[in-house]
Amino acid sequence: MASLSQSNTQRQPRTSAATKTAVLTVVLVAALAASCLLSVAFGSRVVTFGQIVNAFAHPEVTDIASDAIRLRVPRTVLAILVGAALAVSGALMQGVMRNPLADPTILGLNSGAAFAIVCSIAFVGLSTPAQYMIVALAGGALTAMAVWAVGSIGRSGPSPLKFTLAGAVIGSVLSSLTSAITLPRTDVISTYRFWQVGGVSGGRFELMAPVLPLMAVGFAVAALSARQLNALALGDQMAAGLGVDVNRARMMAWSGAVLLSATSTALAGPIGFVGLVVPHAARLIVGADYRRILAMSALIGPLLLVASDVIGRVVSRPDDVEVGIVTALIGAPVFIALVRRRSMPEV
């Protein structure tokens, strides 16, 4: 009887936690749906729900409201994709590094993409969004390879500490080189500054299409890495004792993070705080299991980015405040609040 009572006592907290997670998931899904509707409705011109339905039901209509709606739909889709990619990428990086402050910005990937963009503008003369997208993707990927190579130097092989230091150093060097190129060139600064802020206002389906397969591969790799990240969280020795090839698992998760980070940066520019804050929020909701953290991050990230984009359009109508500025304003105090919580779980 005592053992049965103890079993029931253990089962009740688990059931309660699962119920709480399910309720929060439903709430977040509803909030994301509402944010998407507001994203389509609000802008320099506000449209009604009936006009939104009419625009989708009658695609041949070309009035002002319908045209505005059709421009906002790819923007909203881009915010969803980039938000999910950045959030999952940040969760992967924090798992690989076992560092709660790891994200694409801190590890230098955004600096690599920015340096590639500046070089392409200053020395090659590239000027179209499609060209910037390809260059940023290549710059972020090459920087990630450099961080991995430097972080793997030494007899001990790759380690979270060396990765973090390598990312910080390489990111600082590339940022300095970017400044050295842009400061004497006002023409380069005037072009680069619009990309540097980070935003989804230029979202178009034809620009997204070439990058979507790489992003899909990144999400697939992230899903396959979740169980191994749980083992890596126990430490390299414990993970190896459980039969996990530590270097292979770390490289796999790192590859997924790089694909997601590079593709999102290529599409929307360097948007900060999403990859840093969202995994912590997911961890507070679902605990330390990376299978749940990655899934919840893929839900919270789009919500944050779509909502930030709506806020940026509402506060400065008829102009827009780019989403990268809004996420920084929202993300900084939220992250401080998360850090101050004593119950915040470790990575």
Automatic annotation (TrEMBL):
It is found in: Cell membrane. GO terms for cellular component: plasma membrane. Its main location: membrane. GO terms for biological process: siderophore-iron import into cell. CDD domains: TM_ABC_iron-siderophores_like. Belongs to the binding-protein-dependent transport system permease family. FecCD subfamily. This is Iron ABC transporter permease. It comes from Bifidobacterium vespertilionis.
